[in-house]
Amino acid sequence: MDLVKALSEQYVKAEAPSVEIGDTVRVSIKVKEGNRERIQAFDGTVIAKKHGGINETITVRRISYNVGCEKVFPIHSPNIESITTLRRGKVRRAKLYYLRDRVGKKAKIKEKI
């Protein structure tokens, strides 16, 4: 087990972003198109956090053109440029899967003050 731990330590980011459930975040992703590379942003609400350590992932949900879109991002991936918290959310659940069934104002999350 020490070998697995030693290998995973070199890939873990030194400053992992502090992201909680219910936060509105902007995830900047490196996108390769041919021989060019650019950064694309994905804004949304964190509805789930899973696993831990190097395998930690967050599920981010947003509504674009009246269609819900969810993406799962590995936090320690080298393709993730940055994760910025735009708003802190006040929630009482560990997973916000109920937001999938809600539309409009019902899908809002109160801001933590």
Description:
- With 113 residues, the protein is mainly beta.
- The chain has one domain: SH3 type barrels (Roll), CATH 2.30.30.790.
- It is 7% helix and 43% strand.
- The chain is built from 1 helix and 5 strands, in the order H-E-E-E-E-E.
- A 5-stranded antiparallel β-sheet has the order 4-3-2-1-5, with no helix packed on it.
- The longest helix is centred in the first third of the chain and has 8 residues.
- The radius of gyration is 16 Å and the shape is globular.
- The relative contact order is 0.24.
Break the fold down into its secondary structure elements and pairings.
Elements (H helix, E strand, L loop, with lengths): L1 H8 L14 E10 L2 E15 L6 E8 L2 E8 L5 E8 L26
Antiparallel strand pairs: 1-2, 1-5, 2-3, 3-4
